[in-house]
């Protein structure tokens, strides 16, 4: 289909992915934690996925779905809805068995389970609002809301380590979000100085259309603050240190959501601001700043992965690595680079959802997150080990998984943009990650020195979403449909030739 979708139908499509998770949270408030309430959260995530996929009929042809000036769906936000929905389904489905096991083991109580059941769908709603927001002030507020909601989820178990991780997360991310707020204020000031009056001062479509009229000095400062601020939420240097603690202490399905969706939403915000920045300041400044932050993050992640002894923290540092790769695509800025970065976000979200939920199962069976204390998993839990091994293969960029295609696209785009030196640096660092992860995973999965006795088979409720996620990752690596047209249109929205 071509053209835009407006009116009542557009309003319904824009409201559904926000209302559905809020309704699921309300159901848990009323009923407490029970399977029916948990299924409502799974259904809400499916609604988000369905809206993202359904609106592709308009957005893939460069159309938009809009109702007023505050909310809209274009190819970029539609793709992010698909990521939020897909990762949300996997995490919520796995969370069904996770919370029941936590209750049986005495790691949480009924009020804690209720709190978890309320906060997870609210987390989904906040992320959906962030990607639907056409007003940049609303985008900032939605990202701030994710900080508030996830703070309680990180500290779910209320242990000393989880409380410490929660405070670290709140303090560092509050600094980051304050920097993003200052950047937003400067953008608003530049818009007013340029004569973009009223609501349009933070309206993304208006700012993108009049970006060349904004004051370059003000916008240079604003963009630097925004990169630091939203970069904090994305786990990029220098304010990245909250991420490994929060991801390692949060419940496994929450870690999946944080890594697979929360970090990419912050990258999405930077992509939106890039459109404005490259027209209002020197594009070389935009590219240089993003490249410096991204390459520094990739270097840091590589070093910490090499030294890591905890498999959940290893996955957390891997998230920094992959967000750095996505940020490199945003920095390169060509349509190919943007499309590759977005495909990377999709693949990373699915892969990390599988891995974090799988890591939660390993922790429940082994009672430790130490790499040297989990050995020979294939001998005792072959299905779980197989899922975890396939997830790691996807994350390392093995074909046929989609991350192989996205990383290849990023390298091609970098070389094509005259950044061969950056592509070479990325290759060297990725080689270091590959060696480190495979060496550590080999002991966990294949060691003949098994650390325990054969354990129960993986529950169907847990195995089904994880296997489905891996299958989708494989399909996206070999087929252009269904995401190809959406990726190309999103690349044209953000990218510059």
As a percent range, the share of strand residues is under 5%
In whole angstroms, the N-to-C terminal distance is 26 Å
What is the H-and-E element order?
HHHEEHHHHHHHHHHHHHHHHH
Low-confidence stretches: none
Helical content class: over 70%
Continuous helix count:
20
Physical arrangement of strands within the biggest beta sheet: 1-2
Radius of gyration: 21 Å
Number of strands: 2
Mass-distribution shape? globular
For the biggest sheet, the summary is: 2 strands, antiparallel
The chain-level mean pLDDT equals 93
Secondary structure category? mainly alpha
Notes on the structure:
With 497 residues, the chain is mainly α. It has helices spanning 8-31, 35-54, 56-59, 75-105, 110-132, 136-154, 160-193, 204-209, 216-233, 242-249, 252-280, 283-307, 311-332, 335-366, 377-380, 382-395, 402-416, 420-446, 460-478, 484-494; strands at 65-66, 72-73. It has a two-stranded antiparallel ribbon. A hairpin with a 5-residue loop joins strand 1 (65-66) and strand 2. Helix 4 runs parallel beside helix 14, helix 10 (242-249) runs antiparallel to helix 11 and helix 11 (252-280) packs parallel to helix 13. The longest helix is centred in the middle third of the chain and has 34 residues, at 160-193. The chain is globular, with a radius of gyration of 21 Å.
């Amino acid at each position: 289909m071509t053209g835009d979708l407006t009116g009542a139908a557009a309003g319904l499509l824009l409201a559904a992915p926000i209302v559905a998770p809020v309704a699921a949270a309300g159901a848990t408030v009323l009923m407490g934690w029970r399977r029916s309430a948990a299924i409502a959260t799974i259904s809400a995530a499916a609604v988000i996925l369905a809206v993202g996929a359904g609106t592709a009929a308009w957005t893939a042809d460069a159309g938009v779905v809009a109702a007023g000036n505050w909310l809209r769906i274009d190819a970029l936000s539609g793709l992010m809805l698909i990521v939020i929905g897909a990762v949300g389904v996997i995490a919520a489905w796995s969370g069904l068995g996770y919370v029941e096991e936590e209750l049986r083991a005495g790691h949480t109580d009924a009020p804690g389970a209720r709190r978890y059941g309320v906060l997870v769908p609210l987390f989904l709603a906040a992320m959906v609002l962030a990607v639907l927001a056409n007003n940049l002030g609303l985008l900032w507020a939605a990202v701030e809301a994710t900080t508030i909601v996830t703070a309680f989820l990180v500290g779910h178990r209320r242990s000393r380590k989880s409380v410490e991780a929660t405070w670290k997360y709140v303090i560092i991310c509050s600094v980051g979000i304050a920097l993003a707020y200052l950047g937003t204020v400067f953008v608003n000031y530049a818009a007013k100085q340029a004569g973009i009056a009223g609501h349009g001062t933070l309206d993304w479509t208006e700012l993108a259309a009049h970006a060349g009229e904004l004051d370059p000095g003000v916008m240079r400062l604003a963009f630097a603050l925004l990169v630091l601020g939203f970069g904090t939420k994305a786990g990029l240097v220098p304010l990245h240190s909250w991420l490994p603690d929060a991801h390692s202490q949060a419940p496994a399905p929450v870690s999946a959501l944080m890594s697979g969706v929360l970090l990419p939403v912050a990258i999405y915000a930077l992509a939106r601001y890039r459109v404005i920045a490259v027209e209002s300041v020197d594009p070389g400044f935009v590219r240089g700043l993003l490249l410096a932050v991204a390459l520094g993050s990739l270097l840091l992640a590589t070093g910490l992965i090499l030294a890591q002894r905890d498999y959940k923290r290893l996955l957390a540092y891997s998230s920094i690595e992959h967000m750095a790769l996505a940020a490199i695509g945003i920095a390169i800025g060509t349509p190919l680079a943007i499309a590759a970065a977005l495909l990377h976000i999709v693949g990373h979200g699915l892969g990390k959802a599988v891995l974090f939920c799988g890591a939660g199962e390993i922790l429940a069976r082994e009672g430790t997150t130490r790499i040297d204390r989990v050995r020979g998993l294939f001998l005792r839990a072959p299905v779980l080990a197989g899922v975890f091994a396939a997830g790691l293969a996807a994350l390392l960029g093995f074909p046929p998984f989609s991350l192989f295609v996205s990383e290849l696209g990023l390298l091609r785009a970098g070389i094509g943009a005259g950044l061969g030196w950056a592509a070479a640096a990325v290759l060297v660092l990725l080689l270091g990650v590959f060696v480190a992860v495979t060496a550590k995973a080999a002991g966990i999965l294949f060691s003949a020195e098994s650390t325990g006795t054969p354990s129960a088979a993986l529950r169907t409720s847990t195995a089904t979403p994880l296997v489905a996620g891996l299958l989708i990752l494989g399909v996206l690596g070999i087929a252009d449909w269904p995401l190809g047209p959406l990726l190309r249109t999103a690349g044209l929205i953000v990218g510059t030739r």
